[in-house]
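Colleagues,

Please find the record for the two-part complex below.
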Amino acid sequence: MDEKKIALIPKVVIAGAMGPKEYGLLLTDQRAIFVLESASKAGIGGALGGAIGAVIADAMSGDRKTVDYLGCDPAVLAQDEKNMCIPHASIQSLRLKKSFSGYHLKVEYANQLGKTKKVDATLVIPSELAAQRKAEGVKNKAALEEYAQRARQALELALPPAVTSKAELRL
Amino acid sequence: MNKGKLLRGIGVAIALFGVLMMVYAVLPADDSYEATLPSGDYYYYFGYENLISGSIDITFAVSEGSVVAFVFTSDQYEVYALTGSADYLFRTSGGSGTFTFDLPDMGTYYFVFQHSEISSLIDQDLQVTATVNGVALFGVVLGVVIIAVGGALAVYGIRVMKNEQKLAPAPPAPSDVVIFQGEQQRPPTQP
């Protein structure tokens, strides 16, 4: 059966051992695909140190994937090892919650080995949207709240009732 | 890989090579010399130039007999090469030995090994090891130049990349939450 793209949350950030990684979250009717957009490479420059390290880190931080979410095949994105794929059927719990540090999407799921894994993704408003809303006179905090609300709607639309019924999506 | 990325990669690699050159110019380096001093009025020499401060450790040994070791400036060496004797900065002798020569300033220094008076009638196999604990000016300058060239190339590559991105813009990244119209359907209910 063809996998249908339901929604896209364009920017979430997940903290990792090598620094924060920026993902686009593509929601299909079958799974959630965290598509890696850019990863921090500050560690490389830091290890080199000095002016040269700074130049190299600066040069590398220019790398940023641009994914054609509209035209791409979800299966292709799911196959990319850099991306993270969570089938809806494997989700054990899901929470979208506001905290002091922002809006967090916390997902617990069972991986292919049956082991429980956790993902804590922070919703980050894309800079273009933030700039646009600022120009329209909307404060950053309000713009982020709107972004989180739309993310919640996207999740409600994409996730099956079996997941949404036990999910915490109150903001 | 596009041209900008390639240039950036090459630039970074060249700059790293420059860093290695500088490290090599600063770290101690060992040189080994082997020669046979034929019987008669022969000597063996080697020189170092453009070292910024530091010292040179010399260890020498001959197969039999003894040699006399000198350290000359370039002017002193010219006189020695013409006449067979000259003022010197340092002198020692023996069948083997070790000494450290502290470089007084940046310049060219010659290390000369000649038969001692009683050994000039025999062939002598000479082995010398020199450990240079100085900063090689040429290596440092070359390293800086290479780093500058590599850095400039990397910066140029980044500019080319940005121009390439402007010329052939990638599909704009969505800046807000997107609901895919036309494909918007409720997913099948999970059992």
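Residues 17 and 43 of chain A are 10 Å apart (CA to CA).

Comments are welcome before we finalize the supplementary table.
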